[in-house]
């Protein structure tokens, strides 16, 4: 058999180094080529991660037993011998960038599997990689100096052993929530809406990174791609939960998903609460907050059981302590007349004077179920509490005017608790006072000094989307957020995260990925929305949903790879076909198949990932 | 926690007294505690809405009285039972190192004192008590292990304190007498305590009406003044909304079938895919319906139907109704201001935290609404015309159902689905039970013994009897009295009562008496209904573990445990162990002990309430029947419990008798 020369570039020698030429025959297998190559290179090192990349064909030669003939390689082939794992800059949902060693030779699906395993993110099939929006250089480019967490030293074990996470001690960056942006990062703030939403930049999950033109040290984003988050378990999912929260948060702040003002304020309140909690107890997240909750619950239970126990005296003392009589406070009622007010349990009583406060009150107001709203003007030293108290005839409106900030904070906190049926003995009383104070402070200090403080005072504008931060001034915004915050202030960190995600998932447009398509027989571009359970057709002009198709009515779907057309058949002889305008049809195909795969998971008992099925459903012709 | 705290502050003095007296000698403290308890009872009684009591018809009064009596005596006796158990524990425990003097001295007196309460034992454990049982049990086991006398004493002391606390707690429980209007216009009167959910009350009513228990049954409130109606959700507390009623309120509580209650789970497509054409919706496959429910209710967050449409809004205090485009979101109802876009400029119309949704009736007349299909959002406390009530009007009844259901989903979320599942389980089991009983009837040849041996549902019916006897005998030399009275008086009654019902019970009855003493037969008779009830709440045919759910203090929920538990003692101990108290291991003992009472309780308290007169009809009437069963109940405690806690009860009974005499 004829011997011919095959030249191979050794990447490790540098780009300038001349290719190494080895003499081969056509029936030599790839393994043999590599052996010869390594021998000839005279470099002693571990070559186990290296493989041959065929540049013209953009493919890896990963089967060592295949002969050159079988691979179709001739003397003109340009081969590069290089490592399969290379460094990749990965943007996480929480805005941090990490450097990881990722697999460039396996399918993106497997690469993500490996990355997620290293980061300890369960259910990696829900995530994928996408190309970042091109960053436009802005005048104030703070982001250039961004910190990159280098995780390339973390050994990457084989993808197959998915049993235990590689990183047992999580880098704190993975669970941290850097929320104190002063404004938006440049690249987030001004990508044109249409491009951001409709241009799908997801990588093809059945091909390798190299095949999709990703180079070493390129920057990619890791994001949740499929909006069905199976089996979320805060105990094991610290990273997953945090990253998902961050993704949801940014989706809301960037108005990728529409929400109303009320919803936005609630999101803002939750963010504020989450920030505060994660600042005050940075350990809580890693040390399973569920356990802490349990501990405190048990403690509470113990106290309960102890009630009748041997030490009733202790209990009495404790009770008296926490009772907290706010009795001596002077307030003015509507019409600004002065009365002596007394707060007990969940009602307010008022008297003509302090001396009479031992007798019958003029009136007693039960606050349970009432609405409490602030009516505050810090600059004008006006601290009013507006109470809407339900009565059979309607709501009674009562204003309590406090003398100063301090008094206001305490009474406001007390009213809030009472309206929820809690007494002052409740543990949240002090924290309630604290947060009211900090919100007051927010309205007091002028914005310039405010932005420099980072820890205690939050920047309200970082909590809501630009739409609302433009609409309201800080001092208007703060009470709105505070108001919403009151309803969630009792939540633990994990519960707050979960609540945030819940509300996000309950938004009408949740889970939709959009792609501009052209339906068969239609002359104009329309938008196809892909949701976890359905496809929707949206009229681009009006923005209305024209039609909905549900996956569970779907008989089959086909892709004609030649004309790049997706055809779907539904029950009842409904057929649709469309070509994709802003994305490759493979992406749409992958979305549909992916969601169908996701829906099979719940029924499957085993926790093992059925990779083969995923590939079958999403692979397209690569799967064949 | 707060409750306990409050109780402490309220009755500090008494507590001190108690702690002091809780020394070695037990007799004095016992009496002192019982007096204090009586005080509490009186307080509890006074708390009740006396006015409404006066308004009640005679028969209602009887029923309530019985309820109340049962309640009181039960709590009363629970204390005794506790003491009894402690004593039993000690007596029964041979490992106890030669009980010290004082200890034994403790035992003896308490024994003598308990004689009276013993009768009470049968009637022990009210619903209220029931919920506390668990908290009591812990101290029990340690008792055996602790050889040290001080420990034992401390234990006793703390137990007593706990007990006193429990009683204080019970006395504070708010109770309402509620008149429920039935479908046929008749009414039943129930006592509802503040811990009962609507579900509990429904179960209670199922028991009393022998209806088919399907998921549509619901309690609703009407407000005639505002012409409003609202179905309570099963997880709601009944007392809360009722407390919002004004004194002179003409509001009513209705017990009726409301098909829209759980329609969203039966035909989710009509709500979630309402835009699709009617035919596709109708032809929806069951599997697809399930999937829809799963998708929208089983995920991490509840998905609210995507609702939008033009509704008419009643302008504040004006007579006009303005059309507006409204949207439903999980966070509330929004509307689109004129000329604004649908997505970005939504204005919040109302959020659901503080309002309930009501159906408005005949608003075309009342408020000149465009149609009669109106719904209303208001704070539950508002009972009269007010600017804070929001009125909306839909084009047709279907849109109204859509909106109201959508709002309920947004407001109640997952609880709605949980409620549905509970109702379904209940309905299915009830029907399973009914089916089964009919099959048994169809083969009348099956002798009762066989059924018994098989421990079928029926067998369970009388199984409880054996343990009950020993329990009853524990303290009393002349044992028969307690069981007997019911036997004498009740038998005819239950038979009559059951006959209208399709149950097999009646048919089997005849054979039973021959095998068992009459008392057992009667008892068996009565429990039947609770059985079916409890059946439905748990597994039906197998009688696995009884469902001790706290469904409620309901007298009804308790019997089941009784019926299930007894069998073990049967086999473990000689069946007729008249004076077996010490033989029982305290633990086993305690279980059956609390249980039997409810049954009697049930008899006494419950029979009168749904007193189907001889003619087979469920409507509550004829006080004659009711009076019949009652006497035993009242007299028994009177006779048997002179020294212990009987005073108060006998007083009540006397009052009853007096009242009757006056008639």
From TrEMBL, chain A:
<dbReference type="Pfam" id="PF18124">
    <property type="entry name" value="Kindlin_2_N"/>
</dbReference>
<dbReference type="Pfam" id="PF00373">
    <property type="entry name" value="FERM_M"/>
</dbReference>
<dbReference type="InterPro" id="IPR037843">
    <property type="entry name" value="Kindlin/fermitin"/>
</dbReference>
<dbReference type="Pfam" id="PF00169">
    <property type="entry name" value="PH"/>
</dbReference>
<dbReference type="GO" id="GO:0033632">
    <property type="term" value="P:regulation of cell-cell adhesion mediated by integrin"/>
</dbReference>
<dbReference type="GO" id="GO:0007159">
    <property type="term" value="P:leukocyte cell-cell adhesion"/>
</dbReference>
<dbReference type="GO" id="GO:0007229">
    <property type="term" value="P:integrin-mediated signaling pathway"/>
</dbReference>
<feature type="domain" description="PH">
    <location>
        <begin position="309"/>
        <end position="420"/>
    </location>
</feature>
<dbReference type="InterPro" id="IPR035963">
    <property type="entry name" value="FERM_2"/>
</dbReference>
<dbReference type="InterPro" id="IPR019748">
    <property type="entry name" value="FERM_central"/>
</dbReference>
<protein>
    <recommendedName>
        <fullName>PH domain-containing protein</fullName>
    </recommendedName>
</protein>
<dbReference type="InterPro" id="IPR011993">
    <property type="entry name" value="PH-like_dom_sf"/>
</dbReference>
<keyword id="KW-0130">Cell adhesion</keyword>
<dbReference type="GO" id="GO:0030055">
    <property type="term" value="C:cell-substrate junction"/>
</dbReference>
<dbReference type="GO" id="GO:0005178">
    <property type="term" value="F:integrin binding"/>
</dbReference>
<comment type="similarity">
    <text>Belongs to the kindlin family.</text>
</comment>
<dbReference type="InterPro" id="IPR040790">
    <property type="entry name" value="Kindlin_2_N"/>
</dbReference>
<dbReference type="InterPro" id="IPR001849">
    <property type="entry name" value="PH_domain"/>
</dbReference>
<dbReference type="GO" id="GO:0033622">
    <property type="term" value="P:integrin activation"/>
</dbReference>
<dbReference type="InterPro" id="IPR019749">
    <property type="entry name" value="Band_41_domain"/>
</dbReference>
<dbReference type="InterPro" id="IPR037837">
    <property type="entry name" value="PH_Kindlin/fermitin"/>
</dbReference>
<dbReference type="GO" id="GO:0007160">
    <property type="term" value="P:cell-matrix adhesion"/>
</dbReference>
TrEMBL record, chain B:
<keyword id="KW-0472">Membrane</keyword>
<feature type="region of interest" description="Disordered">
    <location>
        <begin position="129"/>
        <end position="150"/>
    </location>
</feature>
<dbReference type="InterPro" id="IPR029071">
    <property type="entry name" value="Ubiquitin-like_domsf"/>
</dbReference>
<feature type="compositionally biased region" description="Pro residues">
    <location>
        <begin position="608"/>
        <end position="618"/>
    </location>
</feature>
<feature type="region of interest" description="Disordered">
    <location>
        <begin position="432"/>
        <end position="649"/>
    </location>
</feature>
<dbReference type="InterPro" id="IPR011993">
    <property type="entry name" value="PH-like_dom_sf"/>
</dbReference>
<protein>
    <recommendedName>
        <fullName>Amyloid beta A4 precursor protein-binding family B member 1-interacting protein</fullName>
    </recommendedName>
</protein>
<feature type="compositionally biased region" description="Pro residues">
    <location>
        <begin position="542"/>
        <end position="583"/>
    </location>
</feature>
<keyword id="KW-0206">Cytoskeleton</keyword>
<dbReference type="GO" id="GO:0005886">
    <property type="term" value="C:plasma membrane"/>
</dbReference>
<dbReference type="Pfam" id="PF00169">
    <property type="entry name" value="PH"/>
</dbReference>
<keyword id="KW-1003">Cell membrane</keyword>
<dbReference type="GO" id="GO:0005856">
    <property type="term" value="C:cytoskeleton"/>
</dbReference>
<dbReference type="InterPro" id="IPR000159">
    <property type="entry name" value="RA_dom"/>
</dbReference>
<feature type="compositionally biased region" description="Polar residues">
    <location>
        <begin position="498"/>
        <end position="508"/>
    </location>
</feature>
<dbReference type="GO" id="GO:0007165">
    <property type="term" value="P:signal transduction"/>
</dbReference>
<comment type="similarity">
    <text>Belongs to the MRL family.</text>
</comment>
<feature type="compositionally biased region" description="Low complexity">
    <location>
        <begin position="437"/>
        <end position="451"/>
    </location>
</feature>
<feature type="compositionally biased region" description="Pro residues">
    <location>
        <begin position="477"/>
        <end position="494"/>
    </location>
</feature>
<dbReference type="InterPro" id="IPR039665">
    <property type="entry name" value="PH_APBB1IP"/>
</dbReference>
<dbReference type="GO" id="GO:0005829">
    <property type="term" value="C:cytosol"/>
</dbReference>
<dbReference type="InterPro" id="IPR001849">
    <property type="entry name" value="PH_domain"/>
</dbReference>
């Amino acid at each position: 058999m004829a011997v011919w020369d095959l030249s191979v570039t050794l990447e490790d020698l540098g780009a300038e180094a001349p290719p190494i030429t080895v003499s081969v025959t056509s029936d030599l297998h790839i393994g043999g080529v590599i052996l010869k190559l390594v021998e000839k290179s005279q470099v002693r090192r571990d070559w186990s991660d290296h493989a041959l990349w065929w540049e013209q064909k953009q493919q890896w030669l990963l089967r060592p037993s295949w002969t050159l003939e079988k691979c179709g390689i001739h003397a003109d082939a340009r081969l590069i011998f290089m490592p399969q794992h290379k460094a990749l800059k990965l943007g996480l949902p929480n805005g941090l960038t990490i450097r990881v060693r990722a697999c460039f030779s396996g399918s993106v699906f497997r690469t993500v599997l490996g990355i997620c395993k290293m980061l300890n993110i369960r259910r990696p099939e829900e995530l994928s990689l996408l190309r970042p929006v091109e960053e436009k250089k802005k005048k104030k480019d703070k982001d250039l100096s961004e910190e990159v967490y280098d995780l390339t030293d973390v050994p990457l074990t084989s993808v197959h052993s998915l049993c235990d996470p590689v990183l047992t001690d999580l880098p704190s960056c993975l669970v941290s929530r850097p929320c104190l942006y002063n404004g938006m990062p440049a690249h987030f703030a001004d990508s044109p809406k249409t491009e951001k939403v409709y241009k799908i930049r997801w990588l093809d999950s059945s091909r390798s990174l190299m095949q999709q033109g990703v180079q070493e040290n390129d920057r990619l984003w890791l994001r949740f791609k499929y909006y069905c988050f199976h089996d979320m378990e805060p105990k094991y999912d610290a990273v997953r939960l945090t990253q998902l929260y961050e993704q949801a948060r940014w989706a809301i702040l960037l108005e990728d998903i529409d929400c109303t003002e009320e919803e936005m304020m609630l999101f803002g309140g939750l963010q504020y609460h989450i920030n505060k909690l994660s600042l005050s107890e940075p350990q809580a997240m890693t040390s399973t907050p569920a356990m802490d909750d349990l501990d405190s619950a048990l403690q509470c239970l113990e106290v309960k059981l102890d009630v009748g126990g041997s030490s009733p005296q202790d209990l009495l003392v404790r009770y008296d302590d926490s009772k907290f009589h706010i009795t001596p406070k002077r307030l003015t009622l509507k019409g600004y007349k002065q009365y002596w007010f007394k707060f007990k349990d969940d009602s307010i009583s008022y008297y003509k004077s302090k001396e009479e406060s031992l007798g019958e009150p003029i009136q007693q107001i039960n606050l349970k179920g009432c609405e409490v709203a602030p009516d505050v003007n810090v600059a004008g030293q006006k601290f009013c509490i507006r109470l809407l108290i339900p009565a059979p005839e309607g709501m009674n409106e009562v204003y309590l005017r406090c003398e100063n900030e301090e008094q206001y904070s305490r009474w406001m906190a007390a009213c809030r608790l009472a309206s929820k049926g809690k007494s002052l003995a409740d543990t949240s009383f002090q924290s309630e006072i604290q947060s009211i104070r900090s919100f007051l402070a927010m309205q007091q200090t002028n914005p310039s000094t405010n932005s420099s403080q980072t820890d205690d005072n939050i920047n309200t504008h970082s909590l809501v989307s630009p739409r609302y931060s433009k609409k309201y001034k800080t001092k208007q915004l703060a009470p709105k957020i505070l108001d919403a915050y009151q309803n969630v202030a009792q939540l633990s960190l994990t519960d707050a995260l979960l609540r945030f995600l819940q509300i996000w998932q309950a938004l009408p447009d949740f889970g939709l990925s959009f792609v501009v398509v052209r339906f068969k027989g239609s002359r104009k571009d329309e938008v196809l929305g892909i949701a976890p359970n359905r496809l929707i057709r949206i009229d681009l002009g009006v923005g209305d949903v024209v039609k909905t198709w549900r996956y569970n009515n779907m008989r089959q779907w086909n892709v004609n790879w030649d004309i790049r057309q997706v055809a779907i058949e539904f029950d009842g002889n409904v057929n649709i076909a469309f070509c994709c305008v802003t994305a490759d049809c493979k992406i749409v195909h992958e979305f549909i198949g992916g969601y169908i795969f996701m829906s099979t998971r719940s029924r499957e008992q085993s926790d093992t990932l059925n990779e083969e099925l995923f590939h079958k459903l999403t692979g397209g012709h690569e799967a064949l | 926690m707060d409750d306990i705290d409050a109780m402490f502050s309220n009755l500090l003095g008494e507590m001190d007294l108690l702690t002091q007296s809780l020394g070695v000698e037990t007799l004095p403290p016992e009496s002192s505690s019982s007096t204090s308890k009586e005080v509490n009872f009186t307080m509890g009684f006074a708390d009740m809405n006396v006015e409404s009591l006066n308004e009640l018809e005679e028969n209602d009064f009887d029923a309530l009285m019985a309820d109340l009596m049962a309640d009181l005596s039960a709590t009363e006796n629970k204390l005794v039972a506790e003491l009894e158990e402690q004593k039993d524990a000690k007596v029964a425990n041979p490992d106890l190192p030669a009980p010290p003097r004082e200890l034994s001295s403790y035992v003896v007196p308490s024994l003598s004192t308990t004689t009276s309460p013993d009768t009470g034992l049968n009637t022990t454990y009210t619903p209220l008590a029931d919920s506390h049982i668990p908290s009591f049990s812990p101290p029990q086991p340690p008792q055996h292990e602790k050889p040290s006398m001080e420990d034992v004493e401390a234990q006793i002391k703390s137990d007593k304190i706990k007990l006193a606390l429990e009683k204080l707690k019970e006395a504070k429980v708010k109770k309402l007498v509620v008149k429920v209007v039935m479908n046929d216009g008749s009414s039943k009167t129930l006592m509802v305590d503040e811990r009962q959910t609507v579900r509990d009350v429904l179960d209670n009513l199922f028991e009393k009406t022998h209806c088919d228990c399907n998921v549509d049954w619901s309690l609703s409130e009407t407000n005639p003044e505002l012409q409003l109606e609202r179905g309570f959700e099963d997880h709601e507390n009944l007392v809360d909304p009722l407390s919002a009623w004004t004194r002179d309120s003409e509001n009513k509580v209705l017990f009726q079938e409301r098909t829209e209650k759980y329609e969203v789970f039966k035909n989710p497509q009509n709500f979630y895919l309402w835009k699709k054409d009617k035919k596709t919706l109708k032809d929806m496959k069951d599997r697809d319906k399930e999937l829809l429910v799963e998708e929208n209710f089983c995920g991490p967050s509840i998905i609210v139907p995507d609702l939008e449409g033009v509704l008419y809004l009643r302008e504040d205090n004006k007579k006009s109704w303005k059309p507006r485009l409204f949207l439903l979101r999980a966070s509330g109802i929004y509307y689109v201001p004129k000329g604004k876009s649908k997505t970005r400029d939504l204005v919040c119309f109302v959020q659901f935290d503080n309002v309930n949704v009501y159906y408005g009736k005949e608003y075309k007349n009342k408020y000149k609404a465009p149609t009669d299909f109106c719904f209303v959002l208001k704070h539950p406390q508002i009972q009269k015309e007010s600017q804070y009530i929001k009125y909306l009007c839909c084009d047709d009844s279907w849109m109204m159902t859509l909106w109201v259901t959508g709002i309920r989903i947004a407001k109640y979320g997952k609880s709605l689905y949980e409620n549905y599942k509970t109702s379904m389980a209940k309905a299915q089991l009830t029907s399973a039970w009914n089916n089964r009983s009919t099959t048994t009837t169809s083969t009348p040849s099956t002798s009762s013994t066989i059924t018994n041996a098989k421990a079928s549902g029926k067998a369970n019916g009388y199984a409880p009897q054996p343990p009950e006897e020993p329990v009853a005998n524990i303290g009393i030399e002349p044992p028969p009295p307690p069981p007997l009275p019911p036997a004498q008086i009740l038998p005819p009654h239950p038979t009559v009562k059951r006959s209208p019902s399709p149950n097999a019970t009646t048919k089997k009855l005849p054979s039973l008496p021959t095998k068992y003493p009459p008392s057992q037969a009667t008892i068996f008779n009565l429990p039947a209904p609770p059985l079916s009830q409890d059946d439905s709440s748990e597994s039906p045919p197998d009688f696995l573990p009884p469902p001790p759910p706290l469904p409620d203090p309901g007298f009804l929920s308790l019997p089941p445990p009784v019926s299930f538990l007894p069998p073990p003692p049967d086999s473990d101990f000689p069946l007729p162990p008249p004076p077996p108290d010490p033989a029982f291991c305290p633990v086993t003992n305690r279980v059956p002990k609390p249980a039997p009472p409810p049954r009697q309780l049930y008899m006494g308290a419950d029979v009168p309430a749904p007193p189907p007169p001889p003619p087979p009809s469920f409507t509550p009437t004829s006080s004659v029947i009711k009076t019949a069963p009652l006497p035993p109940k009242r007299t028994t405690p009177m006779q048997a419990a002179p020294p212990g806690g009987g005073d108060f009860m006998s007083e009540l009974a006397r009052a009853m008798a007096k009242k009757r005499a006056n008639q």
